[in-house]
Design a protein that fits this description.
138 residues; alpha+beta; Arc Repressor Mutant, subunit A; two-stranded parallel ribbon; two-stranded antiparallel sheet; 5 helices; 36% helix; globular; catalytic activity; 6-O-methylguanine-DNA methyltransferase; DNA damage; MethylDNA_cys_MeTrfase_DNAb; WH-like_DNA-bd_sf
Length: 138
């Protein structure tokens, strides 16, 4: 039987692996990532998981003695809210996400609303993805 913390960790890593599938120059939404993972009501949880990546170093970081994850390989900036905007979390962080998106060719407004202007062209809304499951060690 899987504990709550193990389930949470599995979901967290599934979010990371799904976000890594978003191609450069494209975006998706927190809700769509949750939907792809079979948890359509967990868009806020997806947002919280990705929010923490802004503060992680780009190298592999040990979470505990039994696992490590390369947080720097997760393009968190490619996920926005369902309104097509960068989620509010402070202007410096929002500006950083805007700059990363622009560097990949995504058009983002500079009027303080941080809205993606070419969502129709850059949206990544796959119907189904195959996420690598973590192998259990015995």
């Amino acid at each position: 039987m899987t504990s709550k913390s193990e389930e949470s960790k599995i979901f967290q890593h599934s979010v990371y692996e799904t976000v890594k599938l978003i191609p450069s120059g494209h975006i998706s939404t927190y809700g769509h990532i949750a939907l792809l993972l079979g948890k359509p009501g967990n868009s806020r949880q997806v947002g919280q998981i990705l929010k923490l990546l802004h503060f992680k170093p780009t190298a592999t970081v040990e979470q505990d003695s039994s696992s490590a994850y390369d947080y720097g390989s997760v393009p968190w900036w490619r996920v926005i809210n369902s309104q097509g905007k960068i989620s509010e979390r402070g202007i410096p962080e929002m500006q950083r996400q805007r700059e990363l998106l622009i560097s990949e060719g995504v058009l983002v407004s500079d009027d303080g609303r941080f809205k993606v202007l070419n969502m129709r062209d850059v949206g990544w809304f796959e119907d189904d993805v195959e996420v690598k499951e973590e192998e259990e060690e015995h």
